[in-house]
Amino acid sequence: MTPDLLAKYDALRVPRYTSYPTAPHFSPAVGADHYREWLGRLAPGTGISLYLHVPFCESMCWYCGCHTRVVKRYQPIAEYLDLVGREIDLIAGLVPGRLTIRHIHWGGGTPNLVAPDDFQAVMDRFRQRFDVAADAEIAVEIDPRTMSAELAAAYGAAGVTRASLGVQDFDAEVQRAVNRIQPLDLSRAAIDRLRAAGIANVNLDLIYGLPGQTEEICRQNARTALSLTPQRLAVFGYAHVPWMKKHQQKIDEAALPDGPARWRQFGVIAETLTAAGHQPIGLDHFAVPDDDLAVAQRAGRLRRNFQGYTTDGAEALLGFGVSSIGALPEGYIQNATLQRDYAQAIIAGRPATARGIAIDADDLMRRDLIERLMCDLSVDLGAVAGRHGVSVAAFDEALDRLEPLVADGVATIAGDRLTVPEAARPLVRAVAAAFDSHLARGQAAGPRHARAV
Q: What is the spatial distance between Cα 72 and Cα 57, in angstroms, rounded to a whole number?
């Protein structure tokens, strides 16, 4: 890609497409009554996944885009977990019969701020109210700075199968620039504790585009990450949105790399990881060849949801806690993002749904197409149209919007086959956006989304 083209696409603000329609299109018009109705339609025995959001951290990382807040005492966490327990009972009581759980994901914030006994209590609550499959994947996002041996042992005893560690950057100067001081020894010790507890599957998160990062720093980050022998790595581009996340105003914008520099940073990370044998997965993940993600991608079974790339093929996702998002056959719902609103709803015995969106046949078709494009970097438009009972002409407007991207080499079209070339992998979101009918109508476009490069 030439510098001019990189600058051109760096100006785009496009969704990450962890769902379709995407969260900015959710509306308060879809609320708790819709959620009750949708839950009631789930068939007994339906395979589902659970997501639990823990919105607390010991300190604020200035790059953070998550729903979280800083706490210095454990009492707010304990009170929150009591509400979560009530929500689990409430939602389980709204579904017809017991549902089978295939995946459980703890996200945040910092889930490992939850004390070992409380973590076990929540897992016990899940198992009391749902049928958690014996081979279910149970994953926890972890801040290595607060990962104790006692907590690792509790995870092992509770059946955790995967840990995802936030590393972001190993360089001391970059860490200071984003207010996350995390020496390598802390990350290594956390991984050692987790593996000693029987949790063999470890993921690492890296971020490029941070203040003060260079290509060499990013290359060394990848090398250091590989020395920790993770099964997967997620490589995210920093999304600078200080108008939405006020703490990001503490980051020196003058120290942020521009679009071409970000492109090169991702490139050296990808080159280093693939040279070491990791398989590129979709937009921004990498995995060893025998990892479930890599196997699923080769088989055409890779999926994408709010937790990123996954093997999770469940028919529904139930979200618990502040700001969590759920997905059901009829649409998406999101819990209140303010804890007081969440608490008022749960204490009153009603779902904490604050907004959502109902999906129609056209949304389902476009979701199918966008997911395959985001997972495989290639999609047969005719096959997608056929699965949904329409002709490929349904995509004519999108193909018109794609013409400039095809001319720039960001996408290729051969018959009904649309492909994003390997060299343009980081721009797959821009290609997917051409099929986003909500975005095309100008709904929630612009700065609410991350830059394309």
A: 9
